[in-house]
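Narrative of activities, Objective 1.

The group set out to show that a structural description can be obtained from nothing but a protein's sequence at a throughput compatible with the screening campaign. Below is one input-output pair from the validation batch, recorded exactly as produced.
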Amino acid sequence: MAKIGVVSLGCSKNQVDCEHMLSVLDERGYELTVELNEVDAVLINTCGFIGDARDEAYEYIKEAITLKEEGSIKKIVVSGCLSELLKDKLHNEFPEIDALVGCGSFLEIADVFDRVFEGEYTEAFGKVSDAPLECGRIITTPPYTAFIKIAEGCSNCCSYCVIPRLRGKLRSRDMEEIVAEAEALAETGARELIVVAQDTGSYGVDLCGKSQLSELLSRLCAIEKVDWVRVHYLYADKIDDELIDVIAKEDKIVKYLDIPIQHINNRILSAMNRRDTSESIRTLFGKLRERIPGLVLRTSLIVGFPGETAEEFEELCDFLKEYKIERAGTFAYSREEGTRAAELPDQVDEDEKLRRCELVGALQARIMDEYNEKMMGKTLRVLVEGFDRYSECYFGRSFADSPDIDGKVFFHGKKGIAPGSFVDVVIDGELDGDLLGEVK
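Output recorded for this entry:
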């Protein structure tokens, strides 16, 4: 059977989609690899959320085209958000692409490849609202860590965001299906479950009119072989006292919350069509710090939003200095065609957006250094990920570190510590944002 090289770009939610496609292709008998050279075809699962993500996807497409021209590969299939967003442009700009697959048709991927290998140019663009929520997966993360996607789509309609257009409105998975999947993952070695959706706090609202996330998290924590449950993409306005109580009392829920606020200025938040205010965010973060001791917060920020003044940007910086958010991803505003924000006046100059992004990055680096300094002498439970033969020490992650987006803990210990195990590490140093230590 033909060999297919696979690359998945973008967020963890897109990665789960790719894992579904891998399962479908495997069932059809296709051989799968991460190599993009000397294969019969390449599948590029793209992100199209912002300009930088599209640029990355374009680079992979161009690389695949070069390999095709050199004869190293025969066919190119592009799937995911970029296909959904720019299918006509992709087809016209890159005639070397053999198939385009949208977000609503990823389970048709095996049929698409069948037709491609028969020499037929193919497009598959079903309704995004009809994409199935339940299907098999081939896990691409290390066996001890797995993402659990609990819902698809988003109903928030932030003014800068194309996700509702690409993924449709919120559609929550059945809780029994999620728990069954989590139990199966735990049986195959997953010790950390990372709960993801575009808006995890809204899980279940479309099913019964209110969030069911608290109940779901409690059930995930009841799975015996699971050690850590990590929650991403919690919108601030969806965090109520019930959810805070569950996070505080459940030992398995790591005290790390990803809460994308995007900004802190009220005028900017309103223009973004966010449901939060500066006051509600500050109140929430104060409450979380008080009720969940040792909590590490991650957020996402957008700088250079249309009309953002120097004073409004300074307000954001002052907020970060005051609230000491330990982890932050900062993005220069990306003007997305078809969004309301793209039509707003007073678009900020690109160079100024990048300058502001760099300033927040430097500020955030100092905050992270302060946090790391406070860790000196403390003992952290670390999920072991491997051994670095160059530095001759092990590495892993503490509760404060989510995979791929946060730092690592590098440590020395006796031989034979297996990936996927937990060890207690006494922190005694820091290097380039990572922590150093010794097994206790």
